[in-house]
Amino acid sequence: MLKEIESLVEKHQDRVIEIRRDIHQNPELAMEETRTAQLVKEELEKLGLEVEEKVGKMGVVGLLRGKGNGKTLLLRADMDALPILEETDLDFKSKTDGKMHACGHDVHTSILLGVAKVLAELKDQFKGNIKFCFQPAEEDNPTGGARFMIEDGVLDNPKVDAAMALHIWPMPLGQVALRRGTMMAQSDRLFLTVKGKSSHGAEPHKGQDALVAAGHIITAIQTVISRNVDPMDSAVVTLGTIKGGSRYNVVCDKVTMEGTVRTFRPEVSELMPIRIKALAEGVAAGLDCQCDVSYVKGYSATLNDPDLTDQVLVSLRETLGAENVILADKPGSGGEDFSEFAMRVPSVYYWLGFQSKENEGRTILHNPQLLVDEKAIAFGMKTMAKAALDYLNS
């Protein structure tokens, strides 16, 4: 079976790379993926799949039926780009200023189309069904696109029994990594508004300095990690923006801050908003100011089903060799709305390496200089195709 898969990957990979470059050159942001969705739809229809468009507003689903009744597996890829100005010298760099596929979703989409091409030629070799799910708006945290597709019934008719997805990752080309349990973090949003009273900068005693209070809040909320979270656990609180003040000699009366919180276990996730709110409000009050805290729950942690993970591990090792399949010792701190699928059906999410000498030093995700070694596409196609067939035939 593996030799057949590898032969079909070789047959289709040139066209799949063409598709990837087309998508990369024409990036579309969350819930704007009109052109990408149309391309996906046309490619799936050429394969004779049953295609449904506008699932979850902008998603596309292709259904491939095997030779008889059996389980239904959902394979998912995300399609959206990021609001980033590309800084590469690629022949197929983004044609749209301020938009770039800087997180590899062009690669994910092309890989899944490639898997569809491979498995469409092997449909007589598995029972059950495969749903190829092309999802919009993964980058649109906390809303995301997965929940809209689920609300539109992507897990029904036929009912999905399991789901799989991959994501390019800054690790060596030809390797993959995964782990049982938490694979990606819960990703929440934090908004703080500190309110004080302005006065002349030379008479601060007549005002209430929101800027000073904000400074103390920034340092204080880091103690949630060091003093409230078990040292054996992990969490991240990062404030990425702070805005306040109108003039150099006026005491600031209002400061707004925004940030992100990443956690890996439900107990820690529940703790964070309680402690952050208490600290921010208390610190502000101690400095004669007021702090309004808005804590927005984002994507839940992505959980790999242990039993399905063990099964996929066997498949990946058979495909790449045991030395190229890494059992990750810790989850990634990024957020991922594949978690919406993983909360509802047994799921596996794995990382696909794309680092090589050709892109050395340029493998940071969400970076304007990101370069992906396109040889990773073939590795993605054969690992996912093999894992899908092994699951359906088990």
List the strand order in the largest sheet. 1-2-4-3-5-14-6-13
Give the beta-strand count.
14
**Rg measurement, Å:** 23 Å
Overall 3D shape:
elongated
Q: What is the CATH architecture assignment of the largest domain?
A: 3-Layer(aba) Sandwich
Terminus-to-terminus distance: 14 Å
Overall mean pLDDT stands at 98
Which superfamily, in CATH terms, is the homologous superfamily of the largest domain? Zn peptidases
CATH-defined fold name of the largest domain: Aminopeptidase
What is the helix fraction of residues, given as a range? 25-40%
* Secondary structure tally, helices: 10
The secondary-structure class comes to alpha/beta
Number of domains: 2
Q: What percentage of amino acids are in beta strands? A: 25-35%
The SSE order reads: HHEEEHEHEEEEHHEEHEEHEHEH
For the report, how would you describe the main beta sheet?
8 strands, mixed
In words, what does this structure look like?
- The structure is a single chain.
- By secondary structure, the protein is of the alpha/beta class.
- It folds into two domains: 2-185 and 301-392, Aminopeptidase; 186-299, Alpha-Beta Plaits.
- Helix content is 34%, strand content 25%.
- The protein contains ten helices and 14 strands.
- It has helices spanning 2-25, 34-46, 105-120, 146-151, 210-220, 223-228, 266-286, 306-320, 339-342, 375-392, and strands at 50-55, 59-65, 72-78, 129-135, 162-172, 176-178, 181-184, 186-195, 235-244, 254-263, 290-299, 302-304, 325-327, 347-355.
- It has an eight-stranded mixed β-sheet. A four-stranded antiparallel β-sheet has the order 9-10-8-11. Strands 7-12 form a two-stranded antiparallel sheet.
- α3 links the parallel β3 and β4.
- α1 packs antiparallel against α3 and α3 (105-120) packs across α10.
- The protein is elongated.
- The two termini are 14 Å apart.
- The mean pLDDT is 98.
